[in-house]
UniProtKB/TrEMBL annotation:
Recorded GO MF terms: ATP binding; ATP hydrolysis activity
Residues annotated as domain ABC transporter: 2-229
Record keywords: Antibiotic resistance, ATP-binding, Nucleotide-binding, Transport
Official protein name in the record: ATP-binding cassette domain-containing protein
PANTHER family: ABC TRANSPORTER ATP-BINDING PROTEIN, ABC TRANSPORTER ATP-BINDING PROTEIN NATA
PROSITE patterns linked to this entry: ABC_TRANSPORTER_1, ABC_TRANSPORTER_2
SUPFAM superfamilies per UniProt: P-loop containing nucleoside triphosphate hydrolases (SSF52540)
Subcellular location: Cell membrane
Similarity field: Belongs to the ABC transporter superfamily.
GO cellular component, one term: plasma membrane
One BP term from GO: response to antibiotic
Topology with respect to the bilayer: Peripheral membrane protein
Main location: membrane
Length: 289
């Protein structure tokens, strides 16, 4: 379990973090969402020891996180930290050796990862000769090469095409399935919804919403949608505030059982369900409150 507790950080007069707390359990994929400048990168850098917090703490498995534990983490910064004139396979293996792996183990892990990320054919190419998307895959391989216990990834899907997104998403889900807590930030909210077990939304240095994807959607459910095969218009008969969406009736603040009674007495009900918002809609509402 990785726990980030009550982080505060200022840069001069700017409050970057104001009591930020979040956690990731073993095998949990947490999406960290916020606008540019909201505090995502600062939080991740503090978690990895790149920055020092003014106050607050990072706890791993119940104890304050130290240097030795961080060596077992996988970190992918938003800025690429690759050596452009090294060959791809050598690059990934080199970072494995920096993490204490033997040369043979690092080379073997690099080859396996690059195959998983569909880069086997580019192992002998210089990093600078790869596309930006493929460089991003190499950056992920670097963060995974030492089989980390925890993954913290800052915008890992930035600039990737849909195929590369699927490849990298599968790699993250596989790592979580093996028991690693995973935290990653992204502006691609459809991807957050697809890959994550839980979501944390940050705005102006504060956590403004958090929970599992299902919990967040349940909190924001507002409209009951009814489709009914009826000759008459039921707008005036249904309870609550009723609007039409094509052939459907959308109901807010109305008794759902009364709505079902009215609809079923008028005709055959073909749909009766609450509309669930997307994570993108939840995010937009959360940051504009």
């Amino acid at each position: 379990m990785l726990e980030i507790k009550d982080l505060h950080k200022r840069f001069g007069d700017t409050v970057a973090l104001d009591g930020v707390s979040l956690s990731a359990a073993p095998g949990e994929v947490v999406g960290f969402v916020g606008a540019n400048g909201a505090g995502k990168t600062t939080t991740m850098r503090i978690a990895m020891g790149v920055l020092a917090a003014d106050s607050g703490e990072i706890v791993y498995n119940g104890a304050p996180l130290g240097v030795e534990q961080r060596r077992r983490f996988g970190y992918m910064p938003s800025e690429r930290g690759l050596y452009p004139k090294m060959k791809t396979g050598e690059q990934v293996a080199y970072f494995g050796e920096l993490h204490g792996m033997s040369k043979a183990a690092a080379k073997r892990s690099a080859a396996e990862l690059l195959e998983q990320l569909d880069l086997s054919e580019r192992m002998g190419d210089f990093v600078q000769d790869l596309s930006l998307g493929n460089q991003q895959r190499v950056q992920l391989a670097v963060s995974l090469v030492h089989d980390p216990e925890v993954l913290i990834l800052d915008e890992p899907f930035s600039g990737l095409d849909p195929i590369a997104v699927d490849v990298m998403g599968t790699a993250l889900k596989d790592r979580a399935a093996a028991g690693a807590p995973v935290i990653f930030s992204s502006h691609q909210l459809d991807l957050i919804e697809r890959l994550c077990d839980s979501v944390v939304i940050i705005g102006n240095g504060r956590i403004i919403a958090s929970g599992t994807v299902e919990e967040l959607k349940a909190k924001e459910v507002k409209q009951l949608r009814i489709s009914v095969e009826a000759a008459e218009d039921l707008t005036a008969l249904l309870p609550g505030t009723v609007t039409r969406d094509g052939d459907d009736y959308l109901i807010e603040d109305g008794d759902d059982q009364e709505a079902l009674r009215v609809a079923s007495s008028a005709g055959r009900v073909t749909r009766f369900a609450y509309d669930q918002p997307t994570i993108a809609e939840i995010f937009r509402e959360a940051v504009t409150r």
